[in-house]
Amino acid sequence: MRRRISVLAAGLLLAGHVHAGDLLSCQIQESGVEGTAFAWSYAHGVAEGPYVIETSIGTLDSIEGPEFSSVPTLDGEPIVPPPELGGQIRFGKVYELEDRVALAYLVERERDSSATPSELVFLLNKDRTVSDIDLQPGSAEPVVGHCNLIQ
Q1: Is-above-0.90 flag for pTM?
Q2: Number of H helices and number of E strands within the chain?
Q3: pLDDT in tens, 26-35
Q4: CA-to-CA distance for 61 and 68, rounded, in angstroms?
Q5: Domain contains 141
Q6: How far apart are CA 123 and CA 11, in angstroms?
């Protein structure tokens, strides 16, 4: 019986390890797609550009959000992240992935500091829906299997 439990536990650990490599950040890194860099920081009152990024699904930009935050937009319409993921977008990259676009950026969330922002990666569809999210919290230990896209 102990052997079965040990084999089951080892199998679950292995399955968890394989799944961790499937995080969105690692999928993008392994694809070899080059990203387009941007800086949308409102830290000094003005975004540092490029202001607009043309993609296959539309035009990406950012607007100033509530309480010193910034919000990405697609064709002028806000892409509002869940409250726990929102904050001041610093800089990042946009990745073209067939009929979708991935955004990877450093964001200073309420629980982060400017010295340790979080890395947020999400996959955006043309209808502005987010189909996958990957977060490396700046204020926590590294997430197992997360691949840093923004250095």
Answers
A1: no
A2: 2, 9
A3: 999 999 999 9
A4: 17
A5: no
A6: 30
126 located within any domain: yes
At residue 123 the predicted structure's pLDDT band, cuts being 50, 70 and 90, is: very high
Domain count within the chain = 1
Does a structural domain hold residue 98?
yes
SS3 assignment, position 16: helix
Q: Work out the number of other CB atoms within 10 angstroms of the CB of residue 83.
A: 10
d(CA 53, CA 78): 15
- Which residues, at least 6 apart from 24, have a Cβ–Cβ distance to it below 8 Å? 102, 121, 122, 123, 132, 133, 134
C-alpha angle with apex 143: 33 to 151, nearest 5 degrees?
45
105, 120 Cβ separation under 8 angstroms: yes
101 is a domain residue: yes
CA distance 30 to 128: 24
Query: Which structural domain range is residue 9 located in?
Result: 2-136
Instruction: Report DSSP letters for 60-121, one per residue.
Output: EEEEE-SSS-EEEEETTEE-PPPGGG-BEEEEEEEEEETTEEEEEEEEE-TTSBTTB-EEEE
